[in-house]
Amino acid sequence: PPQVEAVRVYVTTTSDDLQYPVLFVIRQQKGVLSWQVPLILRGLHQRTYTYQEVSRTLCPLEPMEDNSSWKEYMHVDVASMAPFLIHYQLLVTKVKHFTLQTGVTFQFNATPSQPQYFLYEFPEDLDSVVIKVVSNKVYPCSVVSVQDIVCPVYDLDHNVEFIGVYQSMTKKAAITIQRKGFPDGKFYVVFVIKPEDYACGRSVPLSTIKGRGNHSHTWNLEQLKDLEVTIVPSIDERVYVEAIIFCFAVFFSFYFCALIIAFFHYIRIHKAEADGKYSPEDEGAGTLAASHPFASGMGEGSSYRAIDESSSTTGGSRTSPAEGARCRSYSDSSGEEDSDYDTLQHLDSDKNVLGTKVFLYVSDLARKEQRTVSKKYKIYFWNITTIAVFYALPVIQLVITYQTVVNVTGNQDICYYNFLCAHPLGVLSAFNNILSNIGYVMLGFLFLLIVLRRDILHRRALEAQDIFAMEYGIPKHFGLFYAMGIALMMEGVLSACYHVCPNYSNFQFDTSFMYMIAGLCMLKLYQTRHPDINASAYSAYATFAVIIFIAVLGVVFGKNDVWFWVMFSVIHVTASLGLSTQIYFMGRFKIDIGILKRVGMVLYTDCIQQCNRPTYMDRMALLILGNLVNWSFAVFGLVSRPKDFASYLVGIFICNLLLYLTFYIIMKLRSSETIRPIPLFCIAATALVWGSALYFFFQNLSSWEETPAESREHNRNCILLHFFDDHDIWHFLSATALFFSFLVLLTLDDDLEHVRRDKIPVF
C-alpha cells in the first residue's frame, strides 16, 4: 500500500514585537492549524518564553489505495496587524522519515517551538511494543506522548497532556504500548520540549529578562535536544507463563523440602521408639529430638517446683516446694492478659527473692500457669489479623484508584515504575513487580503450617503429661510465631499493593509491616527467656502504631524540616533509655512521677557508695552497645537528614534486631549451650541470602524522592527470564531471608528440650 507522507512547515521572522505577531493559518482537508510568531510558551508562575523560529508537522492523511492520482491540497494564510513592514520566511518540506520501523533506531532533534512526531504501525505478528527514547543531554526537559491517529495532533507544551499516554523525560523514557489500545494498529509518537526544566527537577532559571507588564521573558533559542527513538517488540504470552510457573515452582520447592524433612523425622522417631532407644528419661534423647522446622517444640510455660541455688548480692537463695506451689496458686489470675506489661508484682513472696538474684534461670521467670500465658500471647495473633484486614482493605481500594487514574489520564508520571522492565497485564501496569511478592505470602503460610504442627505436637505432649513438655526446655508459646507468619504474608500483600503504583504518597504501605516484623522478632527473642514478663499485645501494637505515625510524619516533613529531626532524635534517644531501663530491671522499674528519685538512689548506691560493677553485667553490656548504636543513628539522622525516612527507620529496627540476635547467640554459646545442625544451617542461609538480597535492594531502579523524569534515569532492563528486574529479585531473596530468620528463632533453642528449666540461664 502507499506510504503515509507528512509535510513540515518552517517559519521565522525578524520581528520581536509581541504586540504585532505574524499569524499563520494552515487549512487542510480535515483540519485547521494555526500559530503565531514570535511564539509564546508559558512556564511556572506565568513566566513567558518567546521563540522566533517555529516549525510544525502537519496532520498527514493516508492516501487512498484505489486512487493512485489522489492529491491533498492545503492553504497557507499569513497575516499581521503591524503598521510596519515585517519580514518572514516560510519553508514547506516533505518529512523523509515519518514512519518508524520496528527495531530501527531513529535520531532527530527538537526544540520547544519545533516539536516532532512520527507514525508507527504494528506489524501483523506483534501485539505489544516498547518505545525506548534516550538522549545524551539531561536537559532540556521533554515529554514523550503516544496518541491515537486523530487530528489535530497535540504537540505543544500546553496541550500534549490532553490525550494519550505520556511521560516526562531527561535522559530516558520507555512506554509499553499494546495493540488492543489502538484498533487501527497505528499511533503517533510525539516529542515535545518544555520551555523550562522545572518539571524534570531543575530549579526555575534566574536569567530572565524583565519585559512589558508583569511578565518575565527569556529568548530560549538554545533549548535544543537530541533524541533517539527505538521501538522494539515486547515479551509475548509465553514469557508471562514461564515467569508465573517459575515463581510458584521456586516457592513450592520449600513446601516439598519441608514435607521431606517431616517424613524423615517421623520415620526416625518411630524407628527409635521401636528399637527402644527413644526414652524420655534419657537426657541424651535430645539427639533424637525435633530440631527441624516440623519438630515438636520445647516445653510450655508451666510452673517448675525446684529453683537451683545461685549466687546473689546477699547470698544464695532457693525456692522451696511450698513456694513453688504458692507460685502456681498465684499464676491463674483472671486479669493476667489484660496488663500492658507483666512485672510479676502479684508474686509478693518471690518478688524480693528474684530481685536480689544475680543469676536468674528460666524457672524463675516461668511460674505462671501455661494456659493463662498462652492465652496472653495468642492475642498477638488475633490482633495482627484484625489489623491486617482493616489495614489492607482501604489500601487495596486506594491503589486500585491510583491505577485507574493512570489508565484513564495516561499520565505515567504518577507511578514510579522501572519502565524498562514493567510488563502490563490487564489493568496492571507492572505485573512483574506484583507477582514477585508471592514469595512473602507463600513462605509466610508455610511458616504458619510449621508452627501449627509444632503447636499440635506440643499440646499432645501436654495432654499426655509428658514431663519434658511440662517442666523441661524453654517454655514455648506460639502466639508470637503465628503473628510473625501473618506479618510476613501481609508484607507480601502490602508490598504488592505499593507496587501497583509506587510513589511518594503510598510508600508507607510497603514498610508498615516491616516495622512489625522486626518488632515481633525482638519481642520473641526476649520472650524466649522471659516468658512471664513480656509486653502485652495491646501495648506492643500501640507502639507499632506510634512508629508508623512517626514514619508518615517523616515522609511528609523529613526532607527539609530540621525541627522534625530534632524532635525525632530526642524521642529516639529517650525511648532507647526507657526501654533499656525496663530490660535491665526486667519490668521491675516503674516509669512514673518518682522515677527521677529512684534513678538518683540507684546511681548513689551503686556508683557512689559501693562503686561496684553492674549487678547484671551481660545485660548492661548489651544495653550500652545498643544505646550507642541508637544514639549514632539519632546523630546521623539529625546531621544528614536522609530523604528516605521510611528506609532509615527500617534500618534502625533491623540493626537493633541483629544486635539483639547476635547477643543472644553469643550468650547462648557462653552458657555452654549448643546450636544444632538445622538452626546452624538456617543461620548460615539467613546471612547468605540477606547479603545477596541487600545487593539487589541498593540497585535503585527508581526513586520517588526525585522527579519522575529523574527517576527514569535509574531504569534498567530485566535481568531474569526477560521478566524480572533487580527489585523483583530483592523480593524473592528478602522473602526467603525472612523465612530463614523466622526458622532461626523457632529452632535456635531446640538443644534445650531435655534440659531442666532451673539450669537454663536468663540473658
TrEMBL record:
Listed Pfam families: SID-1_RNA_chan
InterPro entries for the chain: SID1_TM_fam
One GO CC term, this protein: plasma membrane
Subcellular location: Membrane
Topology of this chain in the membrane: Multi-pass membrane protein
Presence of keyword Signal: yes
Composition bias, Low complexity: 310-320
Similarity field: Belongs to the SID1 family.
Name listed for the protein in its UniProt record: SID1 transmembrane family member 1
